[in-house]
Design brief:
Keywords: NAD, Oxidoreductase. This protein has 518 residues and is of the alpha/beta class. The chain contains 16 helices and 24 strands. It binds nicotinamide-adenine-dinucleotide.
Length: 518
């Protein structure tokens, strides 16, 4: 068995030792202090490769939740009044501290979430890029100015912070997704209440510790733990002005309607079924590698995973090579050096994946490669699913309609590019889609006609860097301002437009008519 990361309380102020032989307890962060919850109920954080209980999160009580929001509300006026250059400098220091702690963060992610160390490192790095972007907030938050719109009158707009904002995170990117949220929010001048996933809170806690070391004042970032109840408290709270959510559609749509009902801004990034269209003229080797990497990387537990490959003309001529390359992947604990994919997050997740694969088989799909019964030596208790390939998948099959969120690649057939585009567009999700072709004309048609928010051309669904935004669409997103980039800054700020008049004017008669520009 792989050794768990040592989580001693001396090294981690966000953990307390439980009673003898019970796992350490994850603390709350309220008003700049890591405090132990008084909650009676807890949820175990389990290493998916071993079933070892790594730690335990509390179901934050209503009073503790109130204290976290109060701390954020109290910190707001001072932080809002802090110059943006000072707020940026905290982010400069924060990015430096994240870089210095990349390995520690990655080890924690692999222990709690299961992905390979290399992939966990990427999880942190893609979040770090958002912190780097936040270092330019002075420019990003700039308003506009038009001088002399009328005689002696100027108009300008400024972007002001909203107040207390909140973030609710999924399990699959324990570092990147918290970093999509609070760095942009707080550098805009907001204060924040973060709820990490109950399945892997460690990276968020470590990041909060680093953010405070970087100089984030007390109360600017607060952390609560839990599941439905604390999420509902966030949705209902009158002091919280905006909610960022990333996770499943079930939770996302509930949060979208409940939080909007109290007048909050809400942005929800949700589930996906990302397709690749493969034309017969595609570069064979590069396409095969892209399908394998994007289909099975992170054990398919990425919202941008490629889960469906639509082959124009049929998949038959690609199948042997896909099976060969997928079979060559190493499934093991993420702590093991040569592992290509680790376990899925829980036993329930594994059961659900296996059921959907079986449903495909029962509905007539051809099982080219079956990873359901894989046993990983020394990690026999892990939630492992090996790479799985299902061919002849049809749009009405459950395995196609549902997001599988596991290492399963579905192969479909289309008669033409038009037919393939129609298949993709009929799917309710719209996170990403890509095409593999050497024809510029086909690629251009695809980029124009495809209904997906993030489009790859010979790229297996790119997650945009932070100067763009993460632009999922259709059922993959609810709200109108996306995460990070320009839209992210707009989400976390309220625009104010000011018109001023400074002129020496001779006395005029009062006029009640509509002012017009003179
Ligand atoms: P999840 O919806 O189960 O959990 C996400 C968060 O919501 C957690 O903090 C959880 O405590 C809370 N939650 C869950 N159910 C709830 C409910 N009924 N009421 C209130 N709160 C609830 O999602 P997950 O399993 O952690 O993450 C996987 C999902 O996230 C996948 O669907 C994946 O596609 C999606 N995801 C999307 C993106 C994106 O950018 N589009 C990125 C990452 C993950």
């Amino acid at each position: 068995m792989a050794a768990a990361v040592p989580l001693s309380t001396a090294a981690a102020p966000w953990l307390s030792n439980g009673p003898a032989s019970s796992p350490p307890r994850v603390r709350l962060l309220i008003g700049g202090e890591f405090v132990e919850s008084r909650a009676d109920e807890h949820v175990d954080v389990t290493n998916p490769a071993t079933q070892e209980v790594v730690s335990r999160i509390p179901l934050t009580t209503a009073d503790e939740f109130r204290a976290a929001v109060d701390a954020a509300r109290t910190a707001f006026p001072g932080w809002r009044g802090t110059p943006v250059t000072t707020r940026q400098r905290v982010m400069f220091k924060f990015q430096e501290l994240i870089r210095a702690n990349m390995d520690k963060l990655a080890e924690n992610i692999t222990t709690e979430q299961g992905k390979t160390l290399k992939d966990a490192w990427g999880d942190v790095f893609r979040g770090l890029e958002v912190v780097e972007h936040a270092c330019g907030m002075g420019t990003l938050q700039m308003g506009e100015y038009v001088s002399n719109i009328s005689n002696g009158i100027d108009t300008f707009s400024i972007r002001e912070p909203l107040g207390v904002c909140a973030g609710i995170c999924p399990f699959n990117f324990p570092a990147m997704i918290p970093l999509w949220m609070f760095p942009i929010a707080v550098t805009c001048g907001n204060t924040f209440v973060l709820k990490p996933s109950e399945k892997d809170p460690g990276a968020a806690m470590m990041l909060a510790e680093l953010a405070m070391e970087a100089g984030l004042p007390k109360g600017v970032l607060n952390i609560v733990h839990g599941t439905h109840d604390v999420v509902n408290n966030i949705c209902d709270d009158e002091d919280i002005k905006a909610v960022s959510f990333v996770g499943s559609n079930t939770a996302g749509m509930h949060i979208y309607s409940r939080a909007s009902a109290t007048g909050k801004r809400v942005q929800c990034n949700m589930g996906a079924k990302n397709h690749a269209i493969i034309l017969p003229d595609a570069d064979r080797d590069a396409t095969l590698n892209a399908l394998i990497a994007a289909g099975f990387g992170a054990a398919g537990q990425r919202c941008m995973a490629l889960s469906t490959a639509v082959f124009v003309g049929g998949s038959e001529s690609w199948e042997d090579e896909l099976v060969k390359r997928a079979s060559g992947l190493v499934v093991n604990s993420g702590m093991v050096n040569d592992a290509d994919l680790g376990p899925v997050i829980s036993r329930q997740a594994k059961d659900r994946i296996c059921k959907l694969v079986q449903n495909g088989v029962d509905s007539g799909a051809r099982l080219l490669l079956d990873g359901r019964d894989i046993v990983v030596p020394q990690f026999e208790d892990g939630n492992f699913v090996g790479p799985t390939l299902l061919a002849d998948v049809k749009s009405d099959m459950e395995c196609y309609k549902e997001e599988i969120f596991g290492p399963v690649l579905l192969l479909m057939k289309a008669e033409s590019l038009d037919d393939a585009i129609q298949i993709v567009n009929r799917n309710k999700y719209g996170n990403g889609a890509s095409i593999f072709t050497t024809s510029g004309i086909s690629a251009r048609k695809f980029q124009t006609d495809i209904e997906a928010g993030q489009v790859g051309i010979n790229v297996p669904i790119p997650v945009p860097l932070p100067f763009f935004s993460f632009t999922g669409s259709k059922a993959s997103f609810a709200g109108d301002l996306n995460f990070y980039g320009k839209a992210g800054v707009q989400f976390f700020t309220q625009i104010k437009t000011i018109t001023q008049q400074w002129k020496e004017s001779p006395a005029q008669r009062v006029s009640l008519s509509m002012p017009t520009s003179q």
